[in-house]
């Protein structure tokens, strides 16, 4: 008789730790703004892998760059110099206007680097972050995430973080004392409901003594219609984090430190075995090269069309965001909308209870934006009670 534990019968999905409530949809192929499931059913992808597939699935530029790099060199460690990492650092510095880069593999790791950098550079451990913010799931990043539901089960976290409401300049000024070395802000709170920060609030943060880190993991790399969202906010931050869209889906994260704020890290202070991976960096160089004025114009135009189309619906409370990071607040449950949209072959995201989030590839066409908008209007019609319509 077999003595094998019964859990050996678990397979496939059940062999993954259940950290995600996955839809029962297996995607096997992607191209442009579309993905296909195992049965060949086609979906319009307005989630973009959660704001990651910036140029569209299998875009030829990062695809060719990654292929060429795979044929030459995959990995050598950070004990040696590599061309793709140095080229990417130079490209990002040029976009920023003078910065040094630390490469890692995800948004949360970029935030960890920023938290450590601020401690080392300022000698202070206090951090001010925002209620409702999201900076990642590792313990440091989670400590600065302003969503108690995500933090509380993992207490005690890293001490010294104070939270203030978004756009409350008086609360921000009060929270900053001699112990605070870092102010950490998302220009648009992405996971927290697509809430934009006011220019005045961000400018006030930049004027305070702590280092200002803008977490552009979601808003960066062209997502809001400029390469960095901060370009629209009248500030030059000390630190910026990027990840998601940078390599069009290959894992990468980066902390950028402005030339005026460099000098905090010395050899041995921080590191990552896979950070600066040549294949990811080669793909990211192609992404950065592809994001030109014409593409950024497309982001702004398609975003404006989506807002104009969606805000006319009676079930829509507000449409917010910038460029192609769009939040649609509805009177319906956002997860009901996401599910119903999937039935109509449209993939979208949530950003809280009642906010549906759209983050399609920056290359999306006017026809596809229109198609997605009409599908979403149809979905709202289907899920909302008739008294609202
Ligand atoms: N910061 C922001 C603004 C994010 O939106 C996210 C992820 O959604 C993160 C950090 C964490 O990134 P990652 O999931 O790559 O660790």
Features:
single chain; 389 residues; alpha/beta; Aspartate Aminotransferase, domain 1; Aspartate Aminotransferase, domain 2; 2 domains; seven-stranded mixed sheet; 12 helices; globular
Question: How is the secondary structure organized here?
Answer:
Elements: E1 27-31, E2 34-37, E3 42-45, H1 48-51, H2 60-72, H3 83-96, E4 99-104, H4 107-122, E5 126-130, H5 139-143, H6 148-151, E6 161-164, H7 169-175, E7 180-185, E8 188-189, E9 195-196, H8 199-207, E10 211-215, E11 239-242, E12 253-258, H9 278-290, H10 293-310, E13 316-322, E14 325-330, H11 334-343, E15 346-347, E16 349-350, E17 355-358, H12 366-383
Parallel strand pairs: 3-15, 5-6, 5-7, 7-10, 10-11
Antiparallel strand pairs: 1-2, 2-3, 4-12, 8-9, 11-12, 13-14, 14-17, 16-17
Helix pairs in contact: 2-9, 3-9, 10-12, 11-12
The structure holds pyridoxal-5'-phosphate (PLP).
Pyridoxal-5'-phosphate (PLP) binds at residues 106-108, 111, 134-136, 186, 190-191, 215, 217-218, 243.
Summarize the structure.
This protein is α/β, with parallel strands linked by helices. It is built from twelve helices and 17 strands. The protein folds into two domains: 23-54 and 292-383, Aspartate Aminotransferase, domain 1; 60-290, 3-Layer(aba) Sandwich (Aspartate Aminotransferase, domain 2), CATH 3.40.640.10.
Q: How many individual domains?
A: 2
3D shape = globular
Q: What's the total helix number?
A: 12
| CATH second-level architecture of the largest domain | 3-Layer(aba) Sandwich
Largest sheet: 7 strands, mixed
Q: What is the helix/strand order?
A: EEEHHHEHEHHEHEEEHEEEHHEEHEEEH
The tally of strands reads: 17
Strands of the largest sheet, in order across it? 4-12-11-10-7-5-6
The CATH homologous superfamily of the largest domain is called: Type I PLP-dependent aspartate aminotransferase-like (Major domain)
Beta-sheet strand percentage?
15-25%
Helix-strand makeup class:
alpha/beta
Give the CATH topology of the largest domain.
Aspartate Aminotransferase, domain 2
Low-pLDDT ranges: none
Q: Spell out which ligands are present.
A: pyridoxal-5'-phosphate
Helix content: 25-40%
> How big is the Rg?
21 Å
């Amino acid at each position: 008789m077999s003595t094998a534990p019964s859990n050996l019968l678990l397979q496939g999905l059940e062999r993954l730790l259940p950290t995600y409530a996955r839809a029962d949809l297996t995607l096997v192929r992607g191209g442009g703004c579309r993905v296909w499931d195992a049965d060949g059913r086609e979906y319009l992808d307005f989630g973009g892998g959660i704001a990651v597939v910036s140029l569209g699935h299998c875009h030829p530029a990062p695809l060719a760059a990654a292929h060429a790099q795979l044929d030459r060199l995959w990995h050598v460690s950070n004990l040696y110099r590599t061309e793709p990492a140095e080229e990417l650092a130079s490209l990002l510095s040029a976009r920023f206007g003078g910065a040094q880069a630390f490469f890692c593999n995800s948004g949360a790791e970029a935030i960890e680097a920023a938290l450590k950098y601020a401690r080392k550079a300022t000698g202070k451990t206090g951090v001010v972050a925002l209620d409702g913010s999201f900076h990642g799931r590792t313990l440091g990043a989670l400590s600065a995430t302003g969503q108690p539901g995500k933090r509380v089960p993992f207490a005690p976290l890293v001490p010294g973080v104070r939270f203030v409401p978004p756009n409350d300049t008086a609360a921000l000024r009060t929270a900053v004392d001699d112990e605070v070395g870092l102010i950490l802000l998302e220009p648009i709170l992405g996971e927290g409901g697509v809430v934009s920060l006011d220019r005045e609030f961000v400018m006030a943060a930049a004027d305070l003594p702590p280092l200002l880190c803008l977490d552009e993991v979601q808003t960066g790399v062209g997502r809001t219609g400029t390469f960095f969202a901060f370009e629209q906010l009248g500030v030059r931050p000390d630190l910026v984090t990027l990840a998601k869209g940078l390599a069009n889906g290959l894992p990468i994260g980066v902390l950028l430190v402005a030339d005026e704020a460099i000098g905090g890290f010395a050899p041995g202070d921080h590191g990552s075995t896979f950070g600066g991976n040549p294949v990811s960096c080669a793909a990211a160089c192609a992404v950065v090269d592809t994001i030109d004025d014409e593409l950024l114009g497309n982001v702004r135009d398609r975003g404006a069309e989506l807002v104009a189309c969606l805000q006319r619906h009676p079930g829509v409370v507000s449409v917010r965001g910038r460029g192609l990071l769009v939040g649609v607040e509805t009177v319906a449950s956002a997860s009901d909308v996401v599910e119903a949209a999937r039935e109509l072959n449209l993939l979208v995201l949530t950003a809280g209870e009642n906010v549906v989030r759209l983050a399609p590839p920056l290359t999306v066409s006017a026809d596809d934006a229109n198609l997605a908008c009409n599908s979403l209007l149809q979905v709202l019609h289907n899920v909302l009670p008739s008294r609202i319509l």
